[in-house]
Amino acid sequence: MAKILILTASTGGGHDKAAENLRILLEKNGITVQVSSFMKEINRSLDYLVVNSYKQMSLKSPRTFGHLYYISNRKLINNRVSSVFNIVGKTRLLNHINRFEPDVIIGTHLLANNIICKLKANHQISIPYISVVTDFHVHRSYINPEVNAYIVGSAFTKNALVQNGIRSSIVYNYGIPLTPPYYALSKPADKIFTLLIMSGSIGLTFVDELLETLKQYPKPIHCKVVCGNNLKLKRSIEKRYQSEIESGLYEIFGFADHVHTLMETSNVILTKPGGLTTTEAIAKGLPLLIPFAMPGQETENTDFLLSTGAAFKIESGQKLTFILDQLINDPAYYDQVRKNVFALKDSFSLDSTLELIKSFLSPYPVGV
Fold it and tell me: For the domain with range 3-175+348-359, which CATH number is right: 3.30.70, 3.30.300, 1.20.120, 3.40.50?
């Protein structure tokens, strides 16, 4: 039976989620899949340091993270970082690969590229390697001639790779892989304008300002708030907005495994600009409201989304009111913004993603 190794790392949820989405897709099609956190495989102390440093910086010092991100995108610094990862982990990751004996390797984290491509360049492995770019801009770590194929989330991303010397013929704009329900499109069922807020990592103060703004808005707005694992935020909102909840205007959720359904019945989404979450929203045809972005990938994602006319920056309740006025009071304008979103998803295809991966398995039989 064909076997695929997917390498990820838990610096933000998007990498792991993309890996899990691919695992579900491939296993349904008779392929044996192993998803590995590659830094745990090479050095658990390194994994702990990198993952926890990311979490702490994203919460307490996002500017520091952004500074490190942009520095690492410089050629000299990036080469040195790559050398460290290769020294620390190349042998252990090679042993892990040899134990599983995959027919294809897929990376959903940019740092996996460094080690896999070094192993290929040294002729220590000859396994096809597919890199999934989980943001819209391209970090230098993604760029390597040893990558056999790239799966990207936009034509902009493809062009960036090509401009950095990657052959256009090996870059496939099929979208960051999602689960099948996100590819099914339906019109919002609610009669009143509906806003979906993904609030788990936004923070109580700003969420409260948004909800107060919506409460005072001259037209009724149905608001769905997903708090994720932030139970403190959920309890605070439920206590403060009990009247709106009882009237049905506000719906509050904790961790939700039916976000695709919530998107289907919404007109617009307010969310941080992670690559995978924004791809889910784009797949559902939702205009995006972006409250703020962590320096680094999120800032770059925001710049891209704003440039397409599919998103708006929302820095305050006052700005939210201004944007809602435009979207609600001018249906033609809302339709145009939604067309801008649809233009981004034109090439999204889970079937094409599957066929691309299977093409690297030949002549290995699938499901045998």
Answer: 3.40.50
Q: Dump pLDDT digits (tens) for 202-230.
A: 666 788 888 999 989 999 999 999 988 88
Interatomic CA distance for residues 346 and 285, integer angstroms: 11
- Whole-model pTM above 0.70? yes
Q: Which residue has the tokens 């995108």?
A: 73
Q: What are phi and psi of 82, to 5 degrees?
A: -60, -40
Here the tokens at position 311 are 């998103």
User: How far apart are the C-alpha atoms of 289 and 311, rounded to whole Å?
Assistant: 6
Tokens 């969420």, residue located: 207
CB 304 within 8 A of CB 154: yes
Q: 301 with 136: CB under 8 angstroms? A: yes
Which among 36, 67, 69, 65 has a CA at the least distance from the CA of 52?
A: 65
Average pLDDT over residues 305-312: 97
Other C-beta atoms closer than 10 Å to the C-beta of 81 total 17
Helices (H), the chain: 13-28, 38-42, 44-60, 62-72, 75-100, 110-121, 155-163, 204-216, 231-240, 242-247, 259-264, 275-283, 297-308, 317-329, 331-345, 350-359
**Overall CATH class of domain 181-345:** alpha beta
- List Cα–Cα distances, 235 to 63, 207, 241, 257, in angstroms: 30, 13, 10, 19
Question: Which of residues 106 and 50 earns the better pLDDT score?
Answer: 106
